[in-house]
Amino acid sequence: MKPLKIFLILATLTTPALAGNDGPGAGDMYAYEFTWLAKSVAKHLTTKDFSDAKIETTPKELLETISQTRVYSKEKVYIDSFEVDAANYSKSKKIELNRQRWRNSNIYQRSKLAIHEFLGILSLEWNHYDLSHPLSKKIEQALDRAIASGEVDLPHIHYGYCSKTPALEERDYCEPLTRQANELKACAISMAMKRCEMQSKGCQIYEVIVQPVLDRRMPLIQHCTAEAIVQGR
After folding, report:
1. Which of 32, 52, 142, 171 could form a Cys-Cys staple with 44, CB 3.0–4.6 A?
2. pLDDT per residue over 130-154, tens digit each?
3. What is the pLDDT of residues 222-233, one digit of tens each?
4. Are 18 and 36 in contact (CB under 8 A)?
């Protein structure tokens, strides 16, 4: 069954050229936000920030890498059966982003992850989980400058996600327009709206997707999931 994909408001969304830097199917808001944050922070980092952290690159080289890299998002991302926040592939210049972990992180954690993964494309690794790492603080400061400067309008994107595992006999549980699918959809929209209203203004629904997802560990088990994306300003 194809996922039920509902586009409620598209015309009001501002999608700069950077929004095209995502995976298959234009409009991947996870990839869009990931790339947007990385570019915003990179513009406010300096060559000295990298040299102080003993990382041999420059803001210009990083920005070029961001523009040349394709970003894809999946509900979960694995490397050798271990779930990770993201995976980067330097040879193919590709990054896969874990949607679930992205939803559960704050803007500072997201910025550090994004810079980490693009540096990985340059084969320059650093531990972004180490809050004492010199680059960790530099990224936080760069993000603060990006927001305060007014030069960059960071996207106010908020996510809602609800999931339920139906009984085996409920084969049509995730079919479009069923009561169960509508309940899950309402759950995801409510979650995303609440998050948006706490942090942004002018909250509008961008996209709602209801789809079945097979359990990675138990392939016979199918979950019905609903995801809502809301944008504010």
Report:
1. 142
2. 767 889 999 999 999 998 987 666 6
3. 889 999 999 998
4. yes
Secondary structure of 32-95 in HEC code, one letter for each residue: HHHHHHHHHHHHCCCHHHHHHCCCCCCHHHHHHHHHHCEEEEECCEEECCEEECEEEECCCCEE
Length of the chain: 233
The CA distance from 233 to 228, in Å, is: 17
Using alpha carbons, select from 205, 212, 206 the residue that is nearest to residue 75: 212
SS3 23: coil
What the block records as the tokens of 48 is 């000295």
Task: Say if residues 13 and 206 touch (Cβ distance below 8 Å).
Answer: yes
- % of the chain exceeding 70 in pLDDT: 86
d(CA 71, CA 182): 30
On whether the CB atoms of residues 95 and 66 are closer than 8 A, the answer is no
Residue 160: CA count within 13 A, CB half-sphere: 26
Domain range list for the chain: 17-149, 156-232
Stretch (H or E) spanning 127? none
Query: CA 30, CA 97: separation in Å to the nearest integer?
Result: 8
Say which DSSP state 223 is in: E
CA–CA dist 180, 221 (Å, integer): 17
Average pLDDT over the chain reads: 85
Structure tokens at 19: 């929004």
For residue 98, list its beta bridge partners: 74
Going by their DSSP bridges, the two strands 70-74 and 94-98 should be labelled as: parallel
